[in-house]
From TrEMBL:
Domain annotation Inosine/uridine-preferring nucleoside hydrolase: ranges: 8-303
Name used for this protein in its record: Ribosylpyrimidine nucleosidase
The protein's enzyme class: hydrolase
GO terms, biological process: purine nucleoside catabolic process
């Protein structure tokens, strides 16, 4: 592995697991966080933007623009995940007034500006619905060739979580996901098949809380609420920590096994709207358009998260 820092834009809808993704991206020595864009998803844009500023303040984010993007999906009616993330979208901890302010630019324009000014070396890391990325691709198609790759949390080749067929981020804006999966750039997909291996158990939370720094304590507070709702809705004893797997892949892909697959988003199915149809066995003969994560090295992943959060003082 080289020592090169990977430039990323984190596009998120915080969200408990998005918050942890930002904690990792802000401080990991292999990650060079160039911008944070916010999208409606787990909650309305007003709330996800506020949450992004709260977490940005908590992790001491400085000199990195945070911009609010799309407030609605492209075609479908809006769906949110307040059953999982609460009324604020980040229920649990109590935040003061944020010290980080929103960049005046629209999130879509921030994505376009950063990519057009780059040497094609920025990885997009979306951890919410793909509305911002899709609109950026349509508004300025020249960005496509400048995207190094897209490492996203979304979809599933097995079971969904918002419907039996679909995962929340894709279901919340299937048409946007279609734009992204057909954009022609390399995609790494962290679907539910992978993220359900990243179960944030009580010993994991205790180990991280014991780090004692304010970010580690915030992690523990977030996970206490997240554990409760994931148990109520899905019966999980420990919640899957979906979004941080994206940042972990960028920092250390050896934590994961991936499999090339052709991924297509279902846009017309009555019961399957928003499903990522992943051609696991290559039966369509369509070439792969994504590396789909299939296996997580669980102990090393939690070491990665713990060691990264230990970098905070
Ligand atoms: Ca998210």
């Amino acid at each position: 592995m080289t020592n090169r820092r990977e430039k990323i834009i984190l596009d998120m809808d915080p969200g408990h697991d998005d918050a942890v993704a930002l904690m990792l991206a802000r401080i990991h020595p292999r990650i060079d966080l160039r911008g944070v864009t916010v999208v409606a998803g787990n909650q309305t844009l007003e709330k996800t933007a506020r949450n992004a500023l709260n977490v940005a303040t908590a992790v001491g984010l400085k000199g990195v623009p945070v911009a609010a993007g799309m407030s609605r999906p492209l075609v479908r009616e809006q769906v949110i995940a307040d059953d999982i993330h609460g009324v604020t979208g980040l229920d649990g901890p109590v935040f003061g007034e944020p010290e980080v302010a929103l960049d005046p630019r629209h999130g879509v324009d921030l994505i376009i500006d950063l990519l057009m000014a780059s040497d094609g070396d920025i990885t997009l890391v979306p951890t919410g619905p793909l509305t911002n990325v899709a609109v950026a691709l349509r508004k300025e198609p020249r960005i496509a060739e400048r995207i190094r790759r897209i490492v996203l949390m979304g979809g599933a080749y097995q079971l969904g979580n918002i419907t039996p067929a679909a995962e929340f981020n894709i279901y919340a804006d299937p048409e946007a996901a279609h734009v992204v999966f057909t954009c022609g750039r390399p995609i790494v997909m962290m679907g539910l098949d992978l993220t359900r291996q990243a179960l944030c158990t009580r010993p994991v939370v205790q180990r991280i809380r014991a780090l004692g720094n304010p970010v580690a304590v915030l992690f523990a507070e977030l996970m206490e609420f997240f554990t409760k709702t994931q148990k109520e809705v899905f019966g999980w004893e420990a919640p899957p920590l979906h979004d941080p797997t994206t940042v972990a892949w960028v920092a250390d892909p050896t934590l994961f096994e991936t499999k090339p697959m052709h991924v297509e988003v279902e846009l017309r199915g009555e019961k399957t709207y928003g499903r990522t149809c992943c051609d696991f066995y290559g039966i369509t003969g369509n070439g792969a358009n994504a590396e789909v994560a299939v296996k997580l090295d669980v102990p090393r992943f939690w070491d990665f998260v713990t060691e990264t959060l230990a970098l905070y003082s």
